[in-house]
Write a structure and sequence with these properties.
By secondary structure, the protein is mostly helical. It has 17 helices and no strands. Helix 6 crosses helix 15. It is globular and about 55 Å long. 45% of the residues are buried.
């Protein structure tokens, strides 16, 4: 398959006829989306096979828990520093070619790691270098694959595509974690990395045969022509992407809602673990039950979120505020049974909010800006993921597990409510009747 056949879009897929559907599975009406979902399942299973054994491998090599955390930070650091450049690259280069090449490169890194593990040549330095290279490639691969998946369905079916993607992610996670133990037990640690490399190559082999829908295919053709004559080099700058994000009130509002939720909520593996094992006097088994309910709620929420047709920031904010209030009630739970009752709707609301927010983020900007918007978002999200747990941990030190959940939930709901009222005040323009104007003039 030549690079020219990858950069030139295939004939667009026809849109299925019939009345508008709200089925969560409606994106799977498109053959390319079905293939993309299969490819993502294989890729997620391979990735989770590798992640399941990776931390153990780092501990085995270094004997240090701090080194394990450092390897994770080294892989995440590129997202904080250069995601905006990765997003600009996605806007500048042909999307299918970009996604295929990035998947192949990630597969190459996995194969190199597998070979070094098999030859017992993997040391701390090479491990950190490979982690950093993976992080750099991911700054391009993430937005390229996300936007490529959205190109396969019409705009109104993007929430369905995102919801299906979330379900595929969960299924791949469970499958990969289960296969990791079997693979390592029979074939060794290197086999898990090799399997992940094969999963990336499978995705790369599927990409050339995907057919975007008509609107996305037309944009891809225009994009390829602009890139060919050099026009994209002048117009698709990182600065333009940053300026667009800052001047887009809807995206700023989405960033605010998501940020306050990420810092003061959502880190339930931390807050609920302390609540269950502390004030509720439960053990590891009890927290395992809570984690299972959280996972089930996430799956249910992904299905419900996939039913949305035109999600908005208002919907995301309302769901996030509702999740904050549910978190307050969960913090006051007198027993594990009551907590389990509250955890399910918390997880459902969070998952629906995530699906709606992702759909807004990937459809609100014009097509030629979406890569850079996702790049900016990647940098912002990395700040939240790195800063949220320490901030929440400090709040727990000051107020305890219950206090952190209650205070965090009130902050989320209060901040979103205040933001909504402020927006309403700014957009409300008092109307003065002509009669009043005449009386004033007189």
């Amino acid at each position: 398959m030549s690079s020219s056949s990858l950069s030139a879009p295939p004939p667009p897929a026809p849109a299925p006829s019939g009345p508008a559907s709200t089925s969560p599975w409606r994106s799977l009406r498109y053959r390319s989306m079905r293939w993309w979902s299969v490819a993502n399942f294989v890729s997620n299973a391979g990735t989770w096979m590798q992640l399941t054994v990776q931390n153990l491998l780092v501990l085995q090599i270094t004997g240090s828990a701090a080194a394990t955390g450092l390897s994770m930070s080294v892989q995440a650091a590129p997202a904080l520093l250069i995601s905006v450049f990765g997003g600009a690259a996605v806007d500048r280069w042909p999307r299918r070619l970009t996604a295929a090449v990035s998947q192949a490169l990630l597969g190459t890194v996995a194969f190199v790691t597998a070979l070094m593990v098999a030859l017992d040549r993997l040391d701390v330095t090479s491990l950190m270098v490979l982690a950093a290279v993976t992080g750099v490639i991911a700054t391009v691969d993430g937005p390229a694959c996300s936007l490529l998946g959205n190109d396969l369905v019409p705009r109104e079916d993007v929430p369905s595509a995102i919801g299906v993607g979330a379900l595929v992610h969960q299924a791949g996670r469970l499958t990969g974690a289960a296969l990791a133990g079997v693979t390592v037990g029979f074939l060794g640690t290197a086999a898990a990395y090799a399997a992940n490399g094969l999963s990336f190559l499978f995705v790369a082999s599927v990409i050339p045969f995907l057919r975007p829908v008509r609107g996305a295919a037309r944009h891809a053709a225009e994009h390829a022509a602009k890139a060919k004559d050099g026009g994209a080099r002048d117009t698709m700058s990182v600065r333009e992407g940053l300026a667009f994000f800052v001047r887009r009130p809807r995206l700023l509002a989405l960033a605010g809602v998501t940020g306050v939720s990420a810092v003061f909520g959502r880190n339930y593996q931390l807050t609920l673990a302390v609540l269950v094992t502390g004030p509720l006097a439960g053990g590891a088994g009890s927290f395992g039950t809570v984690s299972t309910v959280l996972a089930v709620g996430g799956i249910v929420g992904a299905v419900l979120g996939a039913r949305l047709r035109r999600p908005s920031v208002r919907v995301v904010g309302a769901l996030a505020a509702a999740g904050g209030l549910l978190q307050v009630v969960a913090g006051m739970s007198p027993s594990l049974a009551v907590l389990l009752v509250m955890v399910l709707p918390m997880a459902v609301v969070e998952s629906v909010s995530d699906t709606a927010g992702t759909a807004v983020l990937q459809t609100d900007p014009p097509a030629h800006m979406r890569g850079r918007v996702l790049g900016v978002w990647g940098s912002i999200g990395t700040v939240w993921s790195l800063g949220g747990p320490p901030a929440l941990g400090l709040l727990m030190e000051l107020a305890g597990a219950r206090g952190a959940l209650i205070a965090g939930g009130l902050i989320i709901a209060g901040a979103i409510g205040a933001g909504h009222l402020l927006r309403e005040r700014r957009t409300t323009v008092p109307r003065v009747s002509p009669v009043a104007n005449l009386e004033t003039a007189a």
